[in-house]
Design brief:
The complex is a heterodimer of chains A (about 375) and B (about 450). Chain A contains 14 helices and 8 strands. In chain A, the strands form 2 sheets. A 6-stranded parallel β-sheet of chain A has the order 2-1-3-4-8-7, with helices on both faces. Chain A has a two-stranded antiparallel ribbon with strand order 5-6. With about 450 residues, chain B is α/β, with parallel strands linked by helices. Chain B has 3 domains: about 80 residues, RNA polymerase II/Efflux pump adaptor protein, barrel-sandwich hybrid domain (OB fold (Dihydrolipoamide Acetyltransferase, E2P)), CATH 2.40.50.100; about 180 residues, Thiamin diphosphate (ThDP)-binding fold, Pyr/PP domains (Rossmann fold, 3-Layer(aba) Sandwich); about 130 residues, Rossmann fold. Chain B contains 12 helices and 22 strands. In chain B, strands 11-10-12-13-15-14-20 form a 7-stranded mixed β-sheet, with helices on both faces. In chain B, strands 17-19-18-21-22 form a 5-stranded mixed β-sheet, sandwiched between helices. A 4-stranded antiparallel β-sheet of chain B has the order 1-8-6-3, with no helix packed on it. In chain B, α2 links the parallel β10 and β11. Chain B is globular. Classes of the chains: A alpha/beta (about 375), B alpha/beta (about 450). At the A-B interface, α8 and α9 of A face α3, α4 and α5 of B.
Amino acid sequence: MRAANQRKNALAKQPSKTNAPAKQSKTKAKAVSTGDAAAPPDDSDFILRSLQTEFEEQKRFNATPEQMLKFYEQMLLIRRFEEKAGQLYGLGLIGGFCHLYIGQEAVAIGLQSALDNDRDSVITGYRDHGHMLAYGIDPKVIMAELTGREAGISKGKGGSMHMFSTEHKFYGGHGIVGAQVALGGGLALAHKYNEDGGLCLAYFGDGAANQGQVYETFNMAALWNLPIVFVVEDNQYAMGTASSRSSAETRFHRRGTAFRIPGMEVNGMDVLEVRAAAEVAFKHVREGKGPVLMELNTYRYRGHSMSDPAKYRTREEVQEQRDTHDPIERLKKTLIEGGKSEDDLKAVDKGIRKVVAEAADFAETSPEPEASELYTDVLVENY
Amino acid sequence: MGIELKMPALSPTMEQGTLAKWLKAEGDTIEPGDIIAEIETDKATMEFEAIDEGVLSKIMIAEGTEDVAVGTIIAMITGEGEDASAPDPAPVATAEPAAVPEQAPKPVAEKPAPSAPAHDPEIPEGTSFTSTALREALRDGMAEEMRRDERVFVMGEEVAEYQGAYKVTQGLLDEFGPKRVIDTPITEYGFAGIGTGAAMGGLRPIVEFMTFNFAMQAIDHIINSAAKTNYMSGGQMRCPIVFRGPNGAASRVGAQHSQNYGPWYASVPGLIVIAPYDSADAKGLMKAAIRSEDPVVFLENELVYGRSFDVPDLDDHVLPIGKARIMREGSDVTIVSYSIGVGLALEAAEELAGEGIDAEVIDLRTLRPLDKQAVLTSLAKTNRLIVAEEGWPTCSIASEIQAICMEEGFDDLDAPVLRVCNEDVPLPYAANLEELALINAGSIVEAAKKVCYAD
């Protein structure tokens, strides 16, 4: 019975990649045409399509009005926070590298809203502001870290790329592309070792997806049945190189195939779709069935970092994404259809702008770290 | 004329072994590929396979014989129609080191530990000792900590079912099971990252690298992920992990497998770097490393794994990290060293004593944080100092000691501080060139005499 189902799943028609609103259709047209060959139908254990099939049955999360409003607020907070961070960077208050999450908000909110925060852990790369805000961590301490102040969540010693909250089981914030994937494997190992029932959500980009250690981790995670959800946030560009120019297989959810990790392909511009996919993936992992690889198709409106001239794409392309696929506008439409008024939502925006303005004021006026902090936290113990 | 079967070397460092069992008897016909005997070393039991055909005409070494030197004739095979009663070959006793000429003169060949090392003040007076091989002391240290703390586990290539590539993790799988003794695929970058992540998640991993040469693939996690996290997080996120394995030159394994990473890791703030010499320090510091809240790089040495040293019979022998040890007290010149170099320094000190020079030998034990005070105190006493390091001279621990002596001990110096290191070349394979490239006791003696103006 089970085998028969799986076989059916393996043969299930693949959704057309071009249905994902964020995707440039020409990029992956070739992959679509040859797609069905990926899963060998003669292997009854080969369940790589089963989660996708389950997800396709109920593709949008049936959120309550309260949940929907909460998602809206959280995404808007990330949007406004990042806009403000961009502004402060322009004023010279934020230094170094600063990678903004604008456009990708639905990914962090859709996934993290499905976590059990008492036991699950999260780890990501350097584009990490949104993932922290998704936890409800005070925007003040995040912004103060960006401005390098004592009150910052890393005492001003980490900066934009290196922020952590062990209290929330958020393990960073890592600046080396792909490193967080192996580290996430270790967090998952700890969940399994401690039998705490938790899972690790490990985010990485389409650029990091080409790092060797990602596949070393896929192998061990599958081999050891680790509770981990690998999330490729495919924002279409590895820094300035389009995925199609850097990746031989741009349908990233298939990249677990060689390790027998089931893949899911999700429209990362729709928070309800992301949440629905998260429910399916997390359930699978929690049942002790091993890792899942999710590909979240999304789009970053801003440059790779603040110093990105964005010569590699057209203004029209970015505008098209904003106009037709924006995750916040999409949810706003759903909310209004559900009875919310424009004025209600304006009031939400006003409240969030106030929170962000306060965070910026705090980050600008907080003192820098004491000079003595230079020498603290190098080691935990004294020797 | 018969064919002589000689005691085989099963590893580059093997010098002798036990002839555990004969699987063929005198008079048996032997085909190439037949397993004729089992040979045991301290590391493993290996099958001895015939490559010739004929009749096993005579067994020269009875089964169960221990300490049979590599190259000793253990049996004769006679070809078809040959006289099986041919005269006996040379007796066993003469077959000793001549059979392995490349091994005998090696400067780093295993030598007995000096008879009377200075007492370690960390060990209470009146403690009894048991002679223990270094690899066993390391294993005992890990096992004791695993019994004490459920969070401690070991992962790495061949650590479990194979019992350790160098047998350091021998027996751990049996006692602690596969949950806590984890065989990894050959993916250093990946498993170093997984170990580091597990430490961030609250466990106490011991990550074994088969050798530190392979940790080059993983150095990003050791430095960028493990060493820097506590600082970058403002003290929020710790990474209590031990990265351990053999470091430095082994024997005849060529440039890619022969490198001392002590100076590399010791240059990184946020890491603890330990490089013990003898079994007592290996055990006591391994236990301290596992208990530390900080990431530790623990550098062992393959050539010392089989040497035995006294280990104190204490229930909980934990040594302080960051403290050097005076291995031999002296008044004329200080020889600072660590890891395998300490053995050479002690050998050199014996030789110097014969020439009327009283050398003090200091084992740094920890390379970061470095026990500057121990070095400077000894310098103040002897006024002359050299550094003996099995590693390259450029940007070395020796360079660091020289800088410390210049900056903080200048007034105590009666001669320039000299470094005695390996030659500044990738380690060659050829036996004679390898010998020329590596540090030896003779070059330490020479340098000591030079700073004593005694040439």
